[in-house]
Design goal:
homodimer; seven-stranded mixed beta sheet
C-alpha cells in the first residue's frame, strides 16, 4: 500500500488557493517528499500529515519554488525534537545549496545526509523501495523521480515440502537468503515464485518532454506530470521557458506503455482553472485528471 | 493616511489558519514590510495588496520564521519585472544572510541595497517618513521598529501677507526651503505653524520586555507587540525562550505614554485562540486587541 498526496499544484509562486507543487509518498514508514517550496509545510499540515516521519526529501532542481520551504520544514522537524537523520537527494550542488539555506536554520537536533546525483539516470535502493532519478530538460539541471515498490513472488510451501527443505530454513528463504544445512544448500528460487507486479509512481516537473520521461514513466500506476499551460497555443512560451503544455504531458503518458493514470500539476499562476482543457487532454490519454492541492490516492498491490 | 496590515500573527511555524507574523505599512507609495517569513507573499496576496510597491523590508532578526519567505518574495517581484531597487534593513549580518538565501534566487532584475544596524538605536529618514530601529532582547540580536510620519505645521497665509513675502516664494517656504529675493531672506519659520501631530506605529516581536520598547512605543497610534503566550503561568518559559506573555505586552503598552491601541501578535503554535486571555489583558491596558491575519487599520492625521 502506497499513499500519494499531491500537496500543491502551483508553479512559480504560491497562491492563496494553490500551494507550490510537491508530492509526498507514504510507504511502510518510509515517507518521501519530492520538492519543498515555500508553504509546503503548511500544505502538509492542512493535509493532516506529519513532517516527522519524512526520511527522504528529493529535489527536482534548485529554483526557489522547489526548495524555499526547506529551512522552515527543517526547523519544524527540529522543534518536534527529531533525532533521526534526514536524507536529501538532488542534483549536483545540493549540499552547497542546502548549507547556504541553513544560514537561517543553523542548529538542528538531527543530522542531514546528502546524496548528489551526477548521472543521467540513477537508482537508489532502500529495501524494497527504489527511487529512480532521471535527468529531464529544464533551463538548469533538473531530475524527475520514480518511486517503485518491488514485490517478491509468493512462497510455495508445496514446493518446499516436495524438495524436503527443513521447516526452519523457510523464513530465511522467504527473505531472500541462501541457507546451508546438513550439507545441503537451499536457494530462494527453489521456493519463491516469480516477482509480482509492485507499485510505481513517477513525478516530473519543470521540463520539456523527453525520452527519459517516457522510459521512466513506463508501467506507472500514477504519473504526475508538469502541465504549466492549458492552452495548446502556449507551446512557444512552453518551449522557451522549458515547460510543457497539458497536451504534451498527455502525449508522454500515451507514449509510456502501461501508465494507468495521469495527474497534471505545476500550473502557471496565470491559469486559474485547469478543467476546461481536460477534454482535449483526454483525447490523447483518457485516464487524465487535473491535479489539485491535497489530491490523494492509496495505491494497492494487485490481488493474486 | 497610513495603512497598516498585520499579514500574519503566528510565531515559529506557519499554520493553515495562521501565517507567520509580518506587517505591511502603506504610506504615499512608500510601502514598508517588516519581516518576511515563509508564506508572507501568500498572506499579502490574500490581503489583495501587491508586493511591487514595497520599497523597504525591515527585518527584526534572522530566525527563519522572520526571513525564510524572502527568496520567494524577491522572485515574485522579479517575475513582475520590477526594476526599482529594494532597500533591506536589519541587524548586522544582513547582507551575508540575504546573499546566502539568494543562492536560490540568483538572477533578479533589480538591485538590493543593504542597511545594517549597528547601534542600539538608529533613525533612518525618508522624507517625512522616519524608521526608528531599536535593539530589543532576544536570544540573538533583534530589533523593534517604529514607523513615524512627521507632519509639518500649517502655512499661515495671513502672516505671509503681513510680512509682505512675495507670492512666488510661498511654495518653497511651504516645502521648508529658505528663499532669498530682492535682497531679502525669507525663512520657513516666518510662515509655518508649529509641527502638528503625525502618525506612529511601533512593532516588536521576539523579545523580553525592555525599556527601549517603552521609550520607542511612546505616542504610538498603534503598538503591535509580541504576545507568544496567553497564560500568565507561561512566564518561566517566556523568560527562558526570550518571549513575552500577553500580560507583559499589556504592561509595556501601559508604561509607554500615549499608546492609543495595542495589538498582540506572534502567538505560539500551541495557542489556538487568544480571545480567552484578553479580559485580563484589558485590566492592564484597556484598548488591547488580539491580532488576526489580515487585521488592518487606516490611521488618519488629526483634523485641525
Amino acid at each position: 500500500m502506497l499513499d500519494i498526496c499531491l500537496l500543491g499544484c502551483g508553479g512559480m509562486m504560491p497562491l492563496p488557493y494553490r500551494y507550490l507543487t510537491s508530492m509526498m509518498a507514504r510507504y511502510n514508514g518510509n515517507n518521501i517528499l519530492i520538492d519543498c517550496g515555500e508553504g509546503t509545510q503548511i500544505a502538509l499540515r492542512e493535509k493532516g500529515w506529519s513532517p516527522n516521519p519524512i526520511g527522504i526529501i528529493c529535489f527536482t532542481h534548485f529554483h526557489a519554488d522547489h526548495i524555499s520551504g526547506l529551512p522552515g520544514m527543517l526547523l519544524t522537524m527540529g522543534n518536534a525534537e527529531r533525532k533521526e537523520p534526514l536524507l536529501l537527494i538532488g542534483p549536483k550542488g545540493l549540499e552547497k545549496t542546502v548549507k547556504a539555506l541553513l544560514t537561517i536554520a543553523p542548529e538542528l537536533p538531527f543530522s542531514i545526509e546528502y546524496r548528489e546525483l551526477n548521472e543521467k539516470q540513477e537508482c537508489l535502493e532502500f529495501g524494497d523501495l527504489l527511487i529512480h532519478a532521471f535527468r529531464v530538460q529544464h533551463n538548469i539541471v533538473c531530475y524527475g523521480y520514480s518511486i517503485e515498490i518491488k514485490r517478491k513472488g509468493r512462497f510455495d510451501a508445496q514446493a518446499a515440502k516436495e524438495q524436503n527443505i527443513p521447516l526452519k530454513c523457510w523464513n530465511k528463504l522467504q527473505h531472500g537468503e541462501t541457507v546451508s544445512m546438513d550439507g545441503m544448500v537451499y536457494t530462494p528460487d527453489m521456493v519463491m515464485g516469480a516477482d509480482r507486479r509492485g507499485l510505481k509512481v513517477t513525478y516530473t516537473t519543470d521540463t520539456r518532454p523527453t525520452q527519459s520521461i517516457v522510459e521512466n514513466a513506463k508501467g506507472s500506476d500514477l504519473f504526475i506530470c508538469e502541465g504549466m499551460y492549458g492552452e495548446a497555443e502556449m507551446i512557444t512560451k512552453a518551449k522557451s521557458h522549458k515547460h510543457m503544455t497539458f497536451l504534451e504531458a498527455a502525449e508522454l503518458a500515451a507514449q509510456a506503455d502501461g501508465v494507468k493514470e495521469l495527474w497534471l500539476t505545476h500550473y502557471s499562476p496565470s491559469l486559474p482553472k485547469p478543467e476546461p482543457y481536460m477534454k482535449e487532454v483526454r483525447k490523447i490519454f483518457e485516464n487524465a485528471y487535473p491535479g489539485k492541492d491535497g489530491k490523494t490516492v492509496t495505491l494497492l498491490f494487485d490481488e493474486d
